[in-house]
Amino acid sequence: MRIAIVTDSTAYLNKEEYEQDNIYFVPLSVIFKNEVFKEEVDITSDAFFEKVRESEQLPTSSQPTVGDLTALYQELEKDYDAVISIHLSSRISGTFQNAYSVVQTMDNINVYPYDSEMAAAGQAYLVRAAAKLAKEGHSVNEIIEQLDKIKQETKIYFIVDDLTNLIKGGRLSRAAGGVATALKIKPVLTFRGGEIIAYDKIRTKKKALKKIESLLAESVKEKDYPLVATVVHAYAEDEAQAFKEQMEDKFPDVRFISSFLGPVVGVHTGEGAVGMSWTIDIERL
């Protein structure tokens, strides 16, 4: 059985990964007044944050339509028997629900939507794993079983400079965000059950990054499998690179990679967000 792996643009994979691993994606969009830009297609991450700086009004984001997903699946049915479609958390976007609604309309290919319950690097781990397993000839059920295991072991922690957009967009509760904003603290945020929550409340970004480091240290000590960690940022490459280099020195047994938070996630985190996620390194099992 030939299985296609589909995701959306919020996985923020690079061009080589899409091409070499036969991964397909459907883009989400950002909207500046009446201008609509499909991320990773019409606008890059850097161009987005530059445009935000110049814009008087904050942009909004938009999920792919049922038509967008249907068109992609119909194209894939020419060469594949099934699709595993992995998307950002259904608690923060309707992308997964739209993929799910398409399932019954597809006659010539079986579509299996999968809720990552995460976004960005966490979502990307699942996509890479699915692509690897599909190449190795595993069945749909076997792949989904492995995705569930990886998802359970994946940790995500990040810090934003300003919580306003997360609160306004409903991605962070007003109660948690309001307290943090009023006290001018830098909460360490995480995903739990597909929702963004405040994991810990810390006064400075430097101390918040140290907290993330300590959480990684706990995982390194506890886990009996190799770890891969991704340092992500929203238009804060120098800060993220410095943090990654520090982590590489302190955790030589962890494989570190870099990624970014693009336009759609950047709408909510704002510029300057930095974080790290880690999980099972399937490349070294």
UniProtKB/TrEMBL annotation:
Highest rank taxon of the organism: Bacteria
Pfam families, alphabetized: DegV (PF02645)
Function of the protein: May bind long-chain fatty acids, such as palmitate, and may play a role in lipid transport or fatty acid metabolism.
Family annotation (InterPro entries): DegV, DegV_C, DegV_domain_contain
Tagged with keyword ATP-binding: no
Descriptive protein name: EDD domain protein, DegV family
PROSITE patterns according to UniProt: DEGV
Keyword set, alphabetical order: Lipid-binding
GO molecular function: lipid binding
